[in-house]
Amino acid sequence: MSLRNIIRNGGKALPPRPSLSSIALAWLGSSLAIAAIAALSQLSGQPWILGSFGASCVLLFGFPDAVFSQPRNLIVGHVLCSLIGLGFLKFVGPDW
Fold it and tell me: What is d(CA 96, CA 21) in angstroms, rounded to the nearest whole number?
C-alpha cells in the first residue's frame, strides 16, 4: 500500500476511476444545465446563477449514486439555503 493511499483514504483502497463515457456524460449534463440557467438569466434580465449550483451539478452528474446527489436532497438543500439567504437579506441587509 502506497503512502499516498494511506494519507488520502486512511488505508482504504481508492474507489474505481469512472469511465470516460461517464465523465463525458457528467460534463455534458452540467454544461447543458448551466447553459439553461444562463439563458433564463438573459431572457429575464435577472441573475439566476448561484455559486452552489455548480457544486450541485458536480454532485448530480459526477456522483449520481451518492446520498447527497439524490434529487430530494438537492432540492431541499437549495430551498433551505435560499430561505436562509433571503432571511439574512431581509434582516441583515445586502452589505454583509
Answer: 42
Q: Is 84:49 a contact under the CB 8 Å cutoff?
A: no
What is the tens place of the pLDDT at every residue in 4-50? 655 665 556 656 777 888 888 888 887 888 788 888 888 998 877 66
How crowded is residue 51: how many other Cβ atoms within 10 Å of its Cβ?
6
Cα separation, 70 vs 49, whole angstroms: 21
Q: Return d(Cα 22, Cα 28) in angstroms, integer.
A: 10
Cα gap 41→19, rounded to integer Å: 33
Q: Is residue 3 a part of any domain in this protein?
A: no
Rg of the chain (C-alpha set) = 18
- Whether 59 is covered by a domain: the verdict is yes
